[in-house]
Amino acid sequence: MISLKEGLTKLGFGNMNINEIYGNFTAIRVSQFQDYYDLRATGVADPQTVELLNEIVDTPFQEGESHSSVSTLKEKLKRIGFGGMNINEAYGSYTAKRVSEFQSLYGLKANGIVDPVTESHIDQIYNSPYQNGKEHEDMIKFKEMLNKIGYGYINVNETFGSFSEQKVKEFQGDMELPVSGILDKLTIEKLTEVFERKIIYYETPYDTTVNEQLNLQLGLSTPPQTDLYSSSHGYILTDNLNFEQNGSITGSGVNVRSAPDTTKNNVEYTLARGTTFEYIKNVTGTSVGGNTEWYEIKYKGKTLYVHNSLASKKSLSATVKAVSNIYESKRTDSHTYYRLSSGSSVTVVSKGSTWTEINGRTWRNAKRNDVLQYLDPQKQDDFQHLLLSSSPNVSSSQINRVLDGKGVLDGEGSAFIEASKKHEVNEIYLISHALLETGHGTSDLAKGIEVGENSSGNPVLVNSSNRSDLTNVEEVYNMFGIGAYDGSAKRDGAIRAYKEGWDSVDKAIIGGAKFIGESYIHNQNQQNTLYKMRWNPSAPGYPQYATDMGWAAKQVSNIKSMYDKLDNPILVFDIPKYR
């Protein structure tokens, strides 16, 4: 009984207690063995079963054995794409490894032993009619498929020649299949899948209506925002303001500097339209559009400079006395753009007895009908609903087209594919995220930052003054800005990468993808599309990854442009279906 159980375990039918008891689980394992080797599955270890078990256990086609037929076996394995072994009579560990890999790929018991089932599968592929030097009527169909999916210029006939073999090998390599040039079962299945590839649509139902979802979004403490009205003035009740003469910013996102010079790295603040300041005097500085006139100003107690085309040195400004709404028109029942707290500054356009017209903020509360245009899933581009846990299922060479010229990310297609497979995150979404966070592969965190441990064992950034005092110095990478917080992004991102062991670009891509997947795709709300990230239909409000109502729509063109560089990618869309 012990030898029976040991034999079953060796062949992949194990997890039994090795003793003399023939229990229910042993009977199950015996039945599975019988079924696998095409015996009558009784669960009884009859003489035929025991004889076959012993025959396989004692076969010379296993690690540590040697036999004259092993060299023939190795030749066959090499021919069907599992080579790399020395061709001799010894069945070593690498031969067992290659056999196990073959078994795993073809759904067999991965025991590393060439048993009858494994031998049959090897011979079936080795003797396939779909290989160089043979003819078969089905080759017409297969050649047409290869031609149409881009492995073309093959003469369409029944002959499998050397050029057909070359194209099949290219296809197998791109699809990460064993490269043999033989159209085996797996290659034919993958060829058919790619040839018949279709756009797949799913629907996810939600127990709420579009109108209910709209009401929930508009009722959030920060409702959907938009810049659609940024050029429109706002209105506030005059009695709610204290007035004064002051300077103000008239442009959008205006840099104010420590010197009137645009050629140096001297930006102190980037100010929004309407921000007020104290005007000091006119000065001369570097030319902007042929104009060298600048204003010297006081802002937050600092002497700074702004070009005169981006600011007004004298304008009527005001501060808000108490919390006040900014309206679309001179009516309190008109749309509320936003609310200002006491002490907020505004730039006055026109002061009236009841209402004062002001320059408004860029970002404002969106109107109901405008939000609906972005909220209704049926009105959105399909790519807002691209399932970001799916893969385009293309080769690394195709992914590399997207990465061409993208700094350290150039040529990293295989790493993104591995990251996608390991963490179930779409390669193109990962690339989009990485390009944004790394400045298209050119940031310091992307190019590598040295980190070491100080005398207390804490990781710190390496510099010329502390290098000699640090131990375990590594150059680390962070492709997704993980742990890189505003204000100390370089330091925090590098230390996080050091702790994670991301000491290569590949490791940073593959390891970082885990956090992208957990945070954005596979969270409890399954926000696995751009639409769901923005609107979170399963739990509206939090988490939602933007307040801009058009955020998801604005991501589409970038994702689409990358997909346009791929040949025949799989497209899977998951569209919310409201009640």
Automatic annotation (TrEMBL):
GO molecular function: amidase activity
InterPro entries, alphabetized: MGlyc_endo_b_GlcNAc-like_dom (IPR002901), Peptidoglycan-bd-like (IPR002477), PGBD-like_sf (IPR036365), PGBDSf (IPR036366), SH3-like_bac-type (IPR003646)
PROSITE patterns: SH3B
Pfam families cross-referenced by the UniProt entry: Glucosaminidase, PG_binding_1, SH3_3
Domain of life of the organism encoding this protein: Bacteria
SUPFAM superfamilies hit by this protein: PGBD-like
Ranges for domain SH3b: 244-315
Protein name in the entry: Beta-N-acetylglucosaminidase
Organism expressing this protein natively: Gracilibacillus orientalis
